[in-house]
Amino acid sequence: MSDAKTMRESGSEFMPKFDDKGLLTAVVLDADSSQVLMVAFMDEEALGATLESGEAHFHSRSRGKLWKKGETSGNVLTVEEVLVDCDQDALVLKCRPKGPTCHTGARSCFYRRLDEGILQPVNS
Questions:
Q1: What architecture is domain 3-121?
Q2: Beta bridge partners of residue 96, listed in sequence order
Q3: Which residues on adjacent β-strands are paired with residue 119?
Q4: Known binding site for Mg(2+): residues?
Q5: Could you tell me the pLDDT band of residue 1, with boundaries at 50, 70 and 90?
Q6: Binding site residues for Zn(2+), as ranges?
Q7: Fewer CB near the last or first residue (10 Å), C or N of the chain?
Q8: Would you kindly state where each structural domain of the chain is located, as residue ranges?
């Protein structure tokens, strides 16, 4: 095992591993219920803005720029804790949402489940 790999997987230094597009996956959970609220991507700028401000920022792949969750709706995500996976290429953000998380107005972006090939509403 290389020194960098050992440090990334076992050390205490934060060494985020961005993919070839400069992104890593961020899974957002409700800090109280652990309900999955959304999945998004972060680049170095979004990660830095999140850590500095305490509010979730992401990289908008469709717009190609920094996006603060709730910047227009006011439904910000206050970050309570950041969990880092074993090889530091994915994060879990435990957040306190101010209002709905999904752009559809749903509490979570995961408001449907697949049931025998048909999408059914999830009761939350």
A1: Roll (3.10)
A2: 78
A3: 114
A4: 85, 87, 89
A5: low
A6: 86, 102, 109
A7: N
A8: 3-121
pLDDT value of residue 5 = 84
* pTM of the predicted protein model: 0.92
Is the confidence at residue 124, as pLDDT, over 80? Answer: no
| Residues 122/110, Cβ–Cβ less than 8 Å | yes
Q: Pseudo-torsion of CA 92, 46, 56, 88, nearest 10°?
A: 10
Q: Contact 81/96 with Cβ under 8 angstroms?
A: no
d(CA 102, CA 37): 8
* Residues of each annotated binding site: 85-87, 89, 102, 109
Average pLDDT over residues 82-89: 96
